């Protein structure tokens, strides 16, 4: 069994993310919010940059507890002057804004998990990727989810950010079919 080409960078954080998280169906509301926030931060940057700053981002954003993040001030010097994180004002504001959206949904009895997974009838989509060259930047599903998320109040959720979010959360399985994780994840899915 092989490994997805993108995970062969030699970076330990990238390899661990690939081996332990990416593409694994996630149903934890806090983790879903964390992954969305990381994708917001990643926009225009490399994923490796985000993973290198993930620990600091978790500390700065209260371990991505969306109830706590929802009450944060996007202009806080603790965020804007924190050199350990990605200090993009628009991205910081979007994370806090999205936390408020997720928290408000929860207050209305809608979990972020149900909100996200309903788009695929609670069943991950398997693209049966043979080579990383086949990985799209986005697709029709991501475009539709992006439109819905924007109309429901989320920000910084364009189709490319959403597609990466879908891959990270396992809504879409884009592991290459010859990757050991592809078979592990398919085994996970077949057990449910």
From TrEMBL:
Positions bound to Zn(2+): 4, 18, 175, 179
Return any one Pfam family short name. Answer: Adenine_glyco
- Keyword Zinc attached: yes
On the tree of life, the source organism's domain of life is Bacteria
Q: Which InterPro entries does the entry link to?
A: Adenine_glyco, DNA-3mA_glycosylase, DNA_glycosylase
Q: Name one GO molecular function term.
A: metal ion binding
Recite the UniProt keywords alphabetically: Metal-binding, Zinc
GO BP terms: namely: base-excision repair
Protein name, UniProt field:
DNA-3-methyladenine glycosylase I
| Species this chain originates from | Alloscardovia theropitheci
């Amino acid at each position: 069994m092989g490994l997805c080409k993108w995970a062969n960078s030699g970076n330990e954080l990238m390899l661990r993310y690939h081996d332990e998280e990416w593409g694994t169906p996630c149903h934890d509301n806090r983790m879903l919010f964390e992954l969305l926030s990381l994708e917001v931060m990643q926009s225009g940057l490399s994923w490796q940059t985000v993973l290198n700053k993930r620990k600091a981002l978790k500390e700065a954003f209260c371990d991505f507890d969306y109830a706590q993040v929802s009450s944060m001030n996007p202009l806080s010097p603790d965020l804007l002057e924190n050199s350990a994180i990605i200090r993009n004002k628009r991205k910081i504001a979007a994370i806090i804004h999205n936390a408020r959206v997720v928290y408000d949904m929860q207050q209305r009895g809608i979990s972020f998990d149900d909100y996200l997974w309903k788009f695929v009838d609670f069943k991950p989509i398997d693209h049966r990727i043979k080579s990383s060259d086949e990985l799209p930047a986005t697709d029709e599903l991501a475009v539709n989810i992006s439109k819905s998320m924007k109309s429901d109040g989320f920000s910084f959720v364009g189709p490319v950010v959403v597609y990466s979010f879908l891959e990270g959360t396992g809504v879409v399985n884009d592991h290459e079919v010859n990757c050991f994780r592809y078979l592990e994840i398919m085994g996970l899915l077949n057990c449910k």
